[in-house]
Structures are given as C-alpha cells and as structure tokens.
Specification:
Layout (H helix, E strand, L loop, with lengths): L10 H13 L3 H14 L5 H14 L5 H16 L4 H28 L13 H7 L1 H21 L2 H6 L2 H18 L4 H8 L2 E8 L4 E8 L4 H13 L11 H6 L7 E4 L2 E4 L17 E2 L2 E8 L5 E4 L9 E7 L2 H9 L7
Parallel strand pairs: 1-6
Antiparallel strand pairs: 1-2, 2-8, 3-7, 4-6, 5-6
Length: 339
Amino acid sequence: MIFGKKGRERFSEAVTGFETAVLERDGDRSESAFQQLYQHFADASGQELAQAAPRLAALLPEVPTGARGTVAVVVGACVERGADATVCAPHVFEGLAENLAGVQRFCERWQATGGGDFPDPGETGADVFDRVGTEETLSWIALPQWEMAGVAMLNHASVRTALTAERRDALLTALRSVEEVSGHDFKCLAYALLVLDEPLVVLHRPTGTGYALRMSGIGDNFQLHTLLADVLIGGGHVPGTAPSAEEAAVCRDQPGQVLTTGAFNLVTPGGEWVWNEGTPSDIPVVDGVRLLVLDPAPYQRSWPSGRFFPHMTGSLVLDRVLGAEEAGRLLASCVTKES
C-alpha cells in the first residue's frame, strides 16, 4: 500500500479533521480532509500512525459506502507501518462482511437483470450503476480494497488466532459464493483466511518416522514443502537434500524468492496427493490434528520458493519426534496409492 509523499505535515491533524467531518456528515469537508490525510501519510511518524489507525478503523461504519473501502486501505497501510492490527481488525472484518453482503446483492441483481460477464471492479461504468443500483455497485467496486485491508490484518498471527472459526467460515463462504457466481478471483483474501496457526503431525513413510510440529503463517503448500524439507532433512531427521539457508529464509521472514527442488510427495492419510498449489488447510484432520504423509517425490519438481504473503512471517517448528510405536501405529492406518 503506497501513498504519495508531500512535504512534512501533521498527519494527526488531518485525521482529526476527517473524523470530525465524517461524524458531522459534511461530505465536502470529509473529502477535503481525506485528501490532506492521504497527502501527509508518507511522512507520518510511527506514533501518529499507531494513534490514528484505531480511530480510523472505528470510524469505518460512519464513512459512506463509496469511500469506506479506501479508508480501510489506509487503516491497513497504518498496520503495515506498525499500528496495532489486533485493535483494528474487528472493525475491518465487520466492514468486510458488510461489503461482501453488498457484493452478493450485486451478483444477484446482475444475474436478475440479464446476466453476462461481470464487469471488472476497477472498470465499472455508469451503466452498471443504472442497471444494478448505487450501493451494490459501490460494494462491488470496493471489494479489491477490502481484500487489501483484510490481508493486511491477517498478516498478523495475533489477528488470525483471535478470529473466530464462525467469522472465518462466514467470510470464506461469502467470498467463495461471489467468486463462483462472478468468475472473478479474490485468491489473496481466500488464502489469507485459510492460513493456519496450529499443530501438524507429519509421517515420513520411507523411514517409518513421525514428527509433531507447529505451523504458523504459511500461505501455500510450496512454502510448507520447503520448510518441511528444511526442518526434517536439514535437521538430520530424514535423508535427502536440504534446502539452502536462503531458500528456508525466504519462506520464513526474508524478502525475495529462490529456486527450490521438491524433496517429497505430500499425501493425505487416505493416499490422495496434497498439491503444492493448495494450502495447508487441504491437509485432513485426524483425531483432532492435521496429519500429513511424506512419500518419495515421484519426479523432480522445482519452484520459486518464498512467501505467498510477503508481509506474513512463516514458521514451522519441530515440537517432538514421535516414538516408534506411535509413528508405526499412525502409518499403519494410512493408505498407500500408486502415483
């Protein structure tokens, strides 16, 4: 999220002016104050941003629909520069849920008025407003902005763990419904909502060994695959070629991408492949914990290793090595399928 840089100004005063104008329902003053806020953002101090973000987040319900997504982006930008995501996130998620409801109404009215290809949110013209309605069209246009703001919140483990399963499932259900009906892809938000911060049990079939790990902030299975190889092969637990230190680092907290060669084939206890293109949420839960089996790679696969979410810290930590009896029992219940 990038905002234009002007001279050194007082961002806090701009926030106060915008807040006052919005609460007084003064549209002209609100627009003028927001322009000042926008212009002064780049030079705002960390303290100013930390104080402003919760105020702007709490103000979201009062902001008109057409501008609400833009303000949510500003809140996300404040968080990316150090403001407290846990304070801002409930307001952003509430706004995201309301926006998705508006988008669902947009989709329903679009289909009811003739259907056809849905317009690009960034290229929606006056004819769409006339056809579908103002509020619903504004919601459709703003969805990419709410996606940005939502991901900015979900980059933080504290936000993800505080988000209830009910809220997460409701947001995912609404988003998937919109994607299915409209044909538009909002993958970043979907993947961010699917990020897990929980235990993972991994069984290495060739050696008959098992490992209890904890994963956090892993955006896709390419990232998981690389970190599994780093922890298990690099840690000396299973044979193979470990990723380089750089390959592992870009999957944790360093910028960039590095070419990586796969070490395993990821499969479910039922023998189905867990594709690298998916997310750790594809791994099934067995007896209360996600259970993954590692088979030998059936062929050489390489990919640019890194983080799906550049601002999200990835972590995979080995808690303990399973005893031989426990690992054997779990492996005995797993299916082997030919590739």
